[in-house]
């Protein structure tokens, strides 16, 4: 089964096998799950905002999608993962509230997912599956044994990607 490692909001962790990385309450935040199939090294980030370049206070790299992915990859490589073997799965990025037109800035969920895809693409890390969007929260568990991402929702059941 491995250790269960909890990741908070604006947080990230990487681990050797065996481990289960879990984060609760992904709403508009995006969960970025990374997996090296050969070494079974896993990483999970719970990022809140799409882009660190718009913000002065960047002390917490895990808060932003772009810097969280960079840091998570770096941590996985330091544990022995190979960048060319890492694949990504995404969860979250929900639209938790309804806004009237002109609220593009408020569409944080969509922007988080788009930022994650863009950053991963720039690093040549393929997104192999995702469970994003909607208007409900998700709790995820990443299993280092299989790379399976278990997604639990309230009212929308449980699924594996």
From TrEMBL:
GO terms for biological process: chemotaxis. GO terms for molecular function: protein-glutamine glutaminase activity. The keyword Hydrolase applies. Keywords: Chemotaxis, Hydrolase. Gene3D superfamilies: 3.30.1330.200. Its EC number is 3.5.1.44. InterPro entries: CheD-like_sf, Chemorcpt_Glu_NH3ase_CheD, Cytotoxic_necrot_fac-like_cat. Signal peptide: none annotated. It catalyses: L-glutaminyl-[protein] + H2O = L-glutamyl-[protein] + NH4(+). HAMAP family: CheD. Belongs to the CheD family. Probably deamidates glutamine residues to glutamate on methyl-accepting chemotaxis receptors (MCPs), playing an important role in chemotaxis. This is Probable chemoreceptor glutamine deamidase CheD. It comes from Acetivibrio thermocellus AD2. The lineage of its organism: Bacteria, Bacillati, Bacillota, Clostridia, Eubacteriales.
């Amino acid at each position: 089964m491995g250790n269960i490692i909890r990741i908070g909001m604006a947080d990230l962790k990487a681990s050797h096998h065996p481990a289960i990385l879990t984060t609760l309450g992904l709403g508009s935040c995006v969960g970025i799950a990374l997996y090296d199939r050969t070494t079974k090294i896993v990483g999970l980030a719970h990022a809140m905002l799409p882009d660190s370049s718009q913000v002065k206070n960047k002390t917490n790299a895990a808060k932003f999608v772009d810097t969280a992915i960079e840091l998570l990859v770096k941590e996985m490589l330091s544990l022995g993962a190979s960048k060319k073997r890492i694949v990504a799965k995404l969860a979250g990025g929900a639209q938790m509230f309804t806004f009237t037109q002109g609220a593009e800035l408020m569409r944080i969920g969509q922007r988080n997912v788009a930022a994650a895809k863009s950053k991963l693409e720039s690093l040549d890390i393929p997104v192999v599956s995702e469970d994003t969007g909607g208007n409900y929260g998700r709790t995820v568990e990443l299993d280092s044994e299989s790379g399976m991402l278990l997604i639990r929702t309230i009212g929308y059941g449980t699924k594996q990607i």
